[in-house]
Task: inverse folding
């Protein structure tokens, strides 16, 4: 069953030679429109957002982008060729490993194309990331072999991480020997407080065992959706705040949106570029401790690109009367 | 045939070492060995005494088994590889953070 190739450049509406900055801007613009937490039109927004997020996951990361570009304009051909096996069951040793079964997911938020080339199962050239492919008890008479585990990424929004959610995943297994397809649909609860990289273990949903050996497990690895406003690091959120130069020099007060509400933040006079102002307790929940991470507001000073004559005169006067020189030793 | 099952894993389920051994299909004594070599850690359960392992620990133990049986690594090799994989994952995460919006 061939995998559908994804044209990520088209999804973001950027040319193939777009700069990383252009890609970031394109993503932000689209994400603000379609992110489920902020979209005005909810219907269809979720599906669209998944595409946008996935495109940014690949194009926004130089390493991923390079790999994607190498698939070439013939990327479609390459995908169809490699993808002919679908997403492989992660069994390497023992019989009944990945030779016979394909898996296809629906509902994880990531396409088969993404998982095939950029997903977690692909780390270390596919060799090391997945768990034991069933160390069965070979000593027993009659080969008993525990089924392989299987891993997939699951896309989780920050709001889901905050409040928890219920996701419907369908898992389609195709036995390539018999051509038989079997679909299993399951609901998985994403508990509040999950963090990036955490594995949600769904017992018994991996590959079937052999000779009475138990089935392997399905691991859903949490991957946060890129958010147009926040970056995530552990339980902390980072929000980029743009300031005009005079605001940074004189200080000001701004409204900062958090996941739950808005906070009025005082910007002290003389706030430099890159300074981080911490708002406690407005991050993501920290595991089961009941405490909350923090929100860091990262200052970015933007300069006016076009100034009027009067402004130019004022700035010039400022440069003449000020004795501030950052390059003075 | 579609079977709609609901899985509600607690984010913080923990298992006794006996149950963990069963789930990971690995003898108890090996889990103890891995613990002694710093490869896996139990979580602290304030309610009870004894060791409790979470899903992440199960995953780690299974990965160790994979490295041991399928890749033929000895304990020293396993420690090295696990350490490297953790470091790489940590670096990837940092990089993703810096590439973010």
Result:
């Amino acid at each position: 069953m061939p995998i559908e190739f994804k044209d990520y450049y088209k999804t973001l509406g950027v040319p193939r030679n777009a700069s990383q900055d252009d890609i970031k801007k394109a993503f932000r613009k689209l994400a603000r429109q379609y992110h489920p937490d902020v979209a005005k039109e909810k219907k269809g927004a979720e599906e669209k957002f998944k595409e946008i997020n996935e495109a940014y996951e690949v194009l926004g990361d130089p390493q991923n982008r390079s790999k994607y570009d190498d698939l070439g304009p013939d990327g479609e051909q390459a995908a169809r060729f490699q993808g002919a096996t679908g997403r492989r069951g992660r069994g390497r040793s023992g019989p009944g490993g990945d030779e016979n079964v394909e898996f296809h997911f629906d509902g994880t938020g990531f396409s088969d194309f993404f998982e095939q080339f950029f997903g977690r199962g692909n780390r270390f050239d596919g060799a090391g990331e997945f768990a034991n492919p069933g160390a069965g008890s070979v000593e027993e008479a009659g080969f008993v072999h525990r089924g392989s585990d299987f891993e997939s990424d699951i896309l989780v929004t920050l709001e889901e991480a905050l409040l928890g959610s219920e996701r419907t995943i369908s898992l389609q297994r195709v036995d390539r020997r018999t051509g038989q397809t079997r679909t299993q649909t399951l609901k998985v609860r994403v508990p509040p407080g999950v963090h990036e990289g955490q594995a949600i273990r769904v017992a018994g949903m991996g590959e079937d065992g052999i000779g009475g050996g138990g089935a392997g497990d399905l691991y859903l690895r949490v991957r946060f959706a890129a958010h147009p406003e926040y970056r995530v690091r552990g339980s902390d959120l980072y929000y980029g705040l743009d300031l005009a130069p005079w605001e940074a020099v004189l200080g000001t007060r701004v409204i900062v949106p958090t996941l739950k509400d808005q906070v009025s933040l005082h910007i002290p006079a003389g706030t430099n570029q890159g300074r981080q102002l911490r708002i406690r307790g407005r991050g993501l929940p920290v595991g089961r401790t009941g405490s909350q991470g923090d929100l860091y507001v990262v200052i970015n000073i933007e300069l006016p690109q076009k100034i009027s004559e009067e402004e130019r005169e004022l700035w010039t006067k400022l440069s003449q009367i000020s004795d501030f020189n950052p390059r003075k030793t | 045939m579609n079977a709609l099952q609901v899985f509600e894993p607690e984010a913080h389920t923990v298992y006794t070492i006996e149950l963990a051994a069963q789930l990971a299909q690995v003898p108890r004594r090996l889990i103890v060995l891995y613990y002694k070599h710093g490869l896996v850690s139990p979580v602290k359960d304030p309610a009870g005494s004894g060791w409790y392992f979470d899903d992440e620990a199960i995953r780690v133990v299974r990965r160790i088994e994979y490295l041991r049986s399928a890749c033929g690594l000895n304990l020293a090799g396993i420690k090295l590889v696990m350490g490297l994989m953790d470091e790489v994952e940590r670096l990837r995460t940092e990089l993703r953070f810096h590439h973010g919006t």
